[in-house]
Design goal:
Layout lengths: L7 H13 L4 H9 L16 H26 L3 E12 H7 L5 E6 L6 E6 L1 H11 L15 H14 L2 H5 L9 E6 L13 E11 L2 E10 H4 L8 H5 L8 H12 L5 E4 L7 H5 L17 E5 L2 E11 L2 E9 L9
Antiparallel strand pairs: 1-5, 2-3, 2-4, 3-6, 5-6, 7-8, 8-9, 9-10
GO cellular component, one term: plasma membrane
Organism: Jeotgalibacillus salarius
Family: Belongs to the FliM family.
C-alpha cells in the first residue's frame, strides 16, 4: 500500500478487520514488504510524459481554433472543431482504428524528420467538398471511387488548412508543412514501424449538420528533436530574453554609432506641370516659408525639432531652438 492513498471507507474497513481479528497487523506489514509488480506492455511504450502530452494538447487546441476560423471562411457555413482526446499509442493500433476507406493526408514538416498523418472522416470530407462546389454541405459515401477533380479539390483544401499548423507550433518549433501524399486506404501507408509510438490528437468536427472526427497522427521520431520544448518550463517562460549588462552596453554603443538622416525643410511651393516642365537654370521659386522664420528639423521623416536657419562661416546651418512635442512621434 506504500505510495497509495486510501479513502476513508478503506481505512475504516482495515480498522474493522484488525479489530475483529480477520487481519492482523503482522499480515499488513508482511503485505507492505512484498515487492509490488507493475505490468508494462512493451508494445505500448510510453515515450511522452504527462507534461508533454498536456503541451501537445494545448498546441492543438490552438490549432483547432485556427482550423475553425479557416474552414468557416472557406466554406461559409457553421464549422466547429475542438480537441476530443490526446493519446499515445503504437502506430499499428492507430492504423487498425482508421476505417478501411477514408481520407488520409501525409505531410512533411521540415526541418523536422518524419511525416505527420491527418485522417478525415469521409462524412466530414464530403460535406466540405460539397460546400466548396456550391452545395448545402450534404455528405455522400463513395470514398472508394474519388474522381481526379474531387481528389484535387480535397487535397488543395487540406493542404491550405494545414498551413495553420505553422502558427500553432510557433512556440515550440519553426516548421513548414508540405502535403506529400493523398490516400484513401490506410493499409497502403507504412510511414513508420508498426510498434513505433505515435501521438494521436482527435478533433471533434461539425460542418453544418454533418459531424465526424479528424485525427492527427504524429510519430515520436518527429517530436524527438523538440521534446525539451514541450515542457511546461519552456512553454510558460517569457519569450523575451533579458540582456546581460555587457550585452546591453554593447547594444547601446552600436545604436549610438547608427547613422541618421537629418533634414530641414525650408518651405514648399506649388507649380503647375506646365510650369515645372519649363523650369530652367537660374529660375527663382517663391516658397511658402519666410527666410527669417524657424524651420522644422526632421529625423528621417519624423519632425523632432524647431530650428533657426543661418550661416556658419561659408556653410549653411540651423540652430535648434526647441523640441517638437505631442503625438506618437515622441516615442520614436
Amino acid at each position: 500500500m506504500a505510495g497509495d492513498i486510501l479513502s476513508q471507507n478503506e481505512i475504516d474497513a482495515l480498522l474493522s478487520a484488525i479489530s475483529t481479528g480477520e487481519m492482523s497487523a503482522e499480515e499488513i506489514k508482511k503485505e507492505e514488504q512484498e515487492k509490488k509488480v507493475k505490468v508494462y506492455d512493451f508494445k505500448r511504450a510510453l515515450r511522452f510524459s504527462k507534461d508533454q502530452i498536456r503541451s501537445i494538447s494545448r498546441i492543438h487546441e490552438n490549432f483547432a481554433r485556427l482550423l475553425t476560423t479557416f474552414f468557416s471562411a472557406q466554406l461559409r457555413t457553421y464549422v466547429q472543431i475542438n480537441v476530443a482526446s490526446v493519446d499515445q499509442i503504437p502506430y499499428e493500433e492507430f492504423i487498425r482504428s482508421v476505417p478501411k476507406m477514408t481520407i488520409l493526408n501525409v505531410y512533411e514538416v521540415p526541418p523536422l524528420d518524419g511525416k505527420i498523418l491527418m485522417e478525415i472522416n469521409p462524412n466530414i470530407a464530403y460535406a466540405m467538398m460539397d460546400r466548396v462546389l456550391g452545395g448545402h454541405g450534404s455528405s455522400v459515401s463513395k470514398i472508394d471511387n474519388l474522381t481526379e477533380i474531387e481528389t484535387k479539390i480535397m487535397s488543395t483544401l487540406f493542404e491550405r488548412a494545414f498551413d495553420n499548423l505553422r502558427e500553432a507550433w510557433g512556440n515550440v518549433a519553426d516548421i513548414d508543412p508540405i502535403l506529400t501524399d493523398f490516400e484513401v486506404n490506410p493499409q497502403f501507408l507504412q510511414v513508420i514501424s508498426p510498434n513505433e509510438t505515435v501521438v494521436v490528437i482527435s478533433l471533434n468536427t461539425a460542418v453544418g449538420e454533418s459531424t465526424g472526427m479528424m485525427n492527427i497522427c504524429i510519430p515520436h521520431v518527429v517530436l524527438e528533436p523538440i521534446m525539451p520544448n514541450l515542457s511546461i518550463k519552456h512553454w510558460m517562460q517569457s519569450q523575451k530574453k533579458e540582456l546581460k549588462p555587457e550585452e546591453q552596453l554593447q547594444l547601446e554603443k552600436r545604436v549610438k554609432k547608427a547613422d541618421l538622416s537629418i533634414s530641414a525643410e525650408l518651405g514648399s511651393s506649388m507649380l503647375a506641370i506646365e510650369e515645372f516642365l519649363m523650369l530652367e537654370v537660374g529660375d527663382v521659386l517663391e516658397l511658402s516659408h519666410r527666410y527669417d522664420e524657424p524651420v522644422v528639423l526632421k529625423i528621417g521623416d519624423i519632425p523632432k525639432f524647431i530650428a533657426q536657419p543661418g550661416q556658419i562661416g561659408k556653410k549653411i546651418g540651423v540652430q535648434i531652438i526647441e523640441e517638437v512635442k505631442g503625438g506618437e512621434d515622441d516615442d520614436e
